[in-house]
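job 3f2a | input accepted
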Amino acid sequence: MKQLRTTFLSLAAVSLAGVLLTGCSNPSTASGTTPEAAKSSGSTAAVQTDAAAAAALPQAIRDKGTLTVTMSQSSPPLHFMAADGTTTIGVDPEIAAALGQALGLKTTVVSGPFDGIIPGIAAGKFDMAISQMSPSAERMKVLDFVDYYQSGSGIGVAPGNPQHLSVDALCGKRVGVLKGSFQDLKRLPALSEACTSAGKEAIQAMTYPDMQAPNLALTAGRIDAVYVDGPTLGYAIKQGGQIELLGEKDLSPVSIGFKKGAGLEKAVQLGMESLAKSGKYKEILDKWGVGTGVISDFAFNKAQ
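job 3f2a | predicted structure (304 res):
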């Protein structure tokens, strides 16, 4: 598998100035009403309301007229905080804003820790999550899902791969993952079980609150590898992180999640289909350099 190397400064010192120039505010996106709420940058061109999608919304959502979307705080280029500390920019906030417009709703983006998303939706704090969440069977016990993007897991090591690791040879190593992520809950445990079944040492999972933290820990030599969303790892490398892409695994859809039985699936599917038909969906992905993750089937509750 082709290896990508970088010799620039560490990710911690990278300026996001160039990225911020592309993140324009969206007039249909409001700042949140809770302390952790953040404004979202949307794509510049307005999206027309799709009548069929709007009509498919549950009456309570139509009456409220707003959509509160949550996502984790630091996974560039998917979703991350701008320099002002209040504006969330990236793929997911722009998808959220565009979907809200397609549904005829005003959108609020609220960012926070990834492992707080499901409890927050269950408690009624948020209407949905657009946060690169994999639709696992376990998560489907409490949430319903509509696919909106395709992503793999990236495994990164120090430049030059000094420990001569491979994507399937991480036994006994310290591997950084996002707390509560699919890599944390399913992918890495499966790799570790394969190690112990073969009589080798288990993988040491090191969990972090956001996806930048394990990259920084790798740069500092506190862990041996990272196992995070492929687009986030690729973005870190392109922005000058001292990380080498070892390889990618487990390409699969990620989904928009909402409370089980909320009745949002038809509206979300029709809204995403409208964005795809208009070209807005692909436009957003291409803007952030992740156009290869485009999908055409916005499937409902298709467990991975």
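job 3f2a | The longest helix spans residues 182-197.
job 3f2a | closed
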